[in-house]
Write a structure and sequence with these properties.
With about 80 residues, the protein is mainly beta. It has one domain. About 15% of the residues lie in helices and about 45% in strands. The protein is globular and about 45 Å long. The two termini are about 20 Å apart.
Length: about 80
């Protein structure tokens, strides 16, 4: 399992961030390899040497007290991103 963590100070209040993060159609285009988001399904296209790999996930978005939680569920497992 690989894990990466980043921490960044933002000059905005939680309410502002929550409004933006709760609309994945606005944030997903900034994810690496993002291809499309439609009907709650997210598609990523990962280019490799000769072949391209497509991954499709169902997306659930949740809000905690001070965090946004994106849960991607697909055939290959579950990916959870918190911010």
């Amino acid at each position: 399992m690989r894990a990466k963590s980043y921490e960044v100070e933002l000059p905005y209040g939680w309410e502002t961030l929550q409004a933006v993060l709760s609309e994945p159609q606005k944030t997903l285009p900034f994810f690496p390899y993002f291809e499309s988001f439609q009907d709650g399904k997210v598609r990523f296209k990962v280019p490799r040497f000769i072949f391209n790999f497509d991954y499709e996930f169902e997306l659930d978005v949740g809000m905690g007290r001070n965090e946004a939680i994106y849960t991607f569920r697909g055939e290959r497992g579950i990916l959870t991103i918190t911010s």
